[in-house]
Structure formats: C-alpha cells, structure tokens
Amino acid sequence: MSKVRFGGGIGLSFGNDFFSGSLEPTAIYxxxxxxxxxxxxxxxxxxxxxxxxxxxxxxxxxxxYNPLDFLQLSAExxxxxxxxxxxxxxxxxxxxxxxxxxxxxGVGYSTRNVTFGVRYDVLYDDDKSIYASAWAxxxxxxx
Length: 143
What we know:
By secondary structure, the protein is an all-beta fold. It has strands at about 5-15, 20-30, 35-50, 50-70, 70-85, 95-110, 115-120, 135-140. The protein has a single domain (about 5-140), classed as Porin.
C-alpha cells in the first residue's frame, strides 16, 4: 500500500434559491489502515438568488480515522478567504472580503476508495458563514 494517496472531496448544499458547491483536492499520508493526515486546497462558489454571490479560496488540514473498515471519522480545519458580492439593487449590505476559519467534524461510510458522509462545522457563524447550514454532505475519494 502506498503511503501517499491523492483525491479529495466535493460538497453540495442547497435550499430555497440557494446553492453552494465546493471542490477540495487533497493529498494524504496514510500512516496505517486506520490513521491518515493530509493537506488540501479549497474552492467554493455560493449564490443566493437576488441576494449575493461569493467565491472562496483556502487551505485545508485533514485528519482521518477508520475505527472499522466501513466507518470513517474526520476532522478538517480550513482557513478560507471569502470574497462576497451583494446584489446592490436589492440589499443594503456592502461587498466584503474576509478570512473565515472552519472546523468540520464528520462521519462517513467507506467502501474501498470512496467515503459518503456528513460533516458539521463547529465554528459555524450565521453572520459570516458562507454556507446555508453548519451541516453538509460530502463525497471523499482517494487513490
């Protein structure tokens, strides 16, 4: 088994007139069958109809733990740069740029190289967050 694996994840969150999509390429070092640590890059796009659009770029540190072959627990710290543009015809908010930390704790079902699951941002802030909810589904693939 190669110690370095490449892959990453995709994320989607949506609701009434809201969309968020993310791509997160990652490289991990597989210490053994249970533990892995990695680094990655994050790109996210969000939009809410007649309200705003945002583009987010950042870095990610990832820790993965598989207590059982089919169960994966994860912790992901991200430091993100947010560029948010509001629809000036409809809202009174000003465009803004800022740094946003996130800390996701997740659980997923693993089968071979793919994990499907859900994660929760314990640092979620309604005023600054770029996501509709602290909860987000994910698909993670490593080769």
